[in-house]
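Intended use. Records such as the Protein kinase domain-containing protein entry shown here are meant for training and evaluating sequence-to-structure methods. They are not intended to support clinical decisions.
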Amino acid sequence: MCDGSLADFLFTHERPQPNWEEKVEIARDIARGIHYLHDECETQIIHCDIKPQNILMDEHCCAKISDFGLAKLSKAPDQTKTFTGIRGTRGYVVPEWHRRLPITVKADVYSFGIVLLEIVCGRKCLDWSHREDEAVLEDWVYDCYEAREMEKLVGEEEEVDMRKLERMVKVGLWCIQDEPSLRPLMKKVLLMIEGTVYIPTPPSLTSFLSAV
C-alpha cells in the first residue's frame, strides 16, 4: 500500500483532496470490504475500529481495510457479541460500548457512517478549530441536511452532483443512528451508496459525539 491511509488523503495538505467521483468510489470500496467481513467470511468478523487511519489506499486509489488488532470473530447467528472494555477510537466508537450493550455488526456500520461523512466533507469528525456549532461533524451535517443547505458541506471549488451528495449524506445519517436497530446492515448500505434502493429521510440524531 504505497500511497498511505485515507486519513492522509483527507486531512493533510500534502496531497490534493480526492475529487467527488473518487470519494464515492472510496466509500464504495470501504462498504464492500466491511460487507465482506460481516457476510462473506466463513466466520463473521466485527472490525471494531473502522476509521480513516485504518483504511489504506493503493496506487490505484482503491481503499483497503487494515489493522484487525481489535477485530472480533462472531459465530452467533443473531450477529451479537458481548465484550468487556471499550474498543476503538474516540469519535468512531459506537454508543453501545459506553452503555455496556451487546456489540453487533452495527458497531462497524456506525463507524463507517462517521467515516463516510468525513469523506463527503473532507474534515475530521471532531475538530474544535471550527465554530462550536460545526465542531462535531455529525451535528453540523444533520443541521445542513435539515436546512437544505448541503452545499456548505463541500468546498466551493468542488464539482458535486447534489443528488449524489444528498444520497451520501442520507446514508451516513442512517448509519450513525443512536439506536442500533435503525442502522442498516452493510449489504443494504452498499446498495444505498450505489443508488439501487430507495433511501427514506433519516430520523433526527441523538448526538453521541457531542456528549462524550
